Amino acid sequence: MATRNNTFILKRSNVVGKIPSLSGLTLGELALNTADAKLYTLYTAGSSGATEVRQVGWDSPDNYVTGGTYSNGTLTLNRQNGSVTVNGLLSADTYVTGFTYSNNNLTIQQNQGQSPLSVNISTMTGLTVNGTVSATTYAGETTNFGLSLDGQSGIISTGQKGYTIIPYNMTITGWNIVASPSGSCQFDVWKIASGSALPTVSNTITGSQKPILSNGYIATSTSVSGWTTTVTTGDIIGYNVDSASGITKVTLSINGTKR
Questions:
Q1: Cβ(53)–Cβ(42) under 8 Å?
Q2: String of b and e for 38-55 (b: at least 16 CB within 10 Å)?
Q3: 121-153 pLDDT, tens per residue?
Q4: Class of the domain covering 142-258
Q5: Domain extents for the chain?
Q6: N or C: lower Cβ tally within 10 Å for the chain?
Q7: The pLDDT of residue 17
Q8: Picking from 41-45, 75-79, 232-236, which range would have the lowest pLDDT averaged per residue?
Q9: Paired residues of 156 in beta bridges
Q10: What is the CA radius of gyration of the chain?
Q11: Buried b (16+ CB within 10 A) or exposed e, 211-224
Q12: pLDDT at 92 over 70
């Protein structure tokens, strides 16, 4: 009896990156991309009946994600074949502590007790995806910075008293002074952009509206029209006591909103 040699040739393409269309395959049929060494077939998702073209041996986009980076509200997922960028997540790196990715769902972990952000990435083709973030952003959130001084039973001395580096963008809206015992004091506030230098009196942001307490325990003001109210991430703030009498403890708080 003669031996018969049969050769089976699959539907095929030698174009890099080409994937068969839904209409180009029937259920159970295979298609081979010889340029990519990838095999494709139709996949039907259980009882839903949804059908799509899938690579044979492909489980989920997880197989292609190899790492990622986050900077200034943009997350880049590195893949074996290209990358995916998610824009518009957060305005401050401070709040992003990590992320996980599974089945097109990207979860971004935050600190400060904030809930994780969830973004659905439906296209893993190396294009830029502008994801919708399902969480409250930080713009408009109230915040403050400042310092507390303790004269150790002596009157608070005058002069420069310390520095703060601001970790977010904000707009100054007012200030508070709380002191003990009743007395008087006046502060000046200085600011310089991030770098190796420290602010001095030439960098004052208070104009003629310096925080001042006159013969009392508490002073509050929202009159900052003469101030430089814009503060940027990394700005260095300096505090100076211009004058003080009668008080041994005092706290200055500069109030504002994040932006």
A1: yes
A2: bbbbbeeeeeeeeeeeee
A3: 544 433 344 444 444 446 678 999 999 999 999
A4: mainly beta
A5: 17-55, 61-129, 142-258
A6: N
A7: 80
A8: 75-79
A9: none
A10: 31
A11: bbbeeeeebeeeeb
A12: no
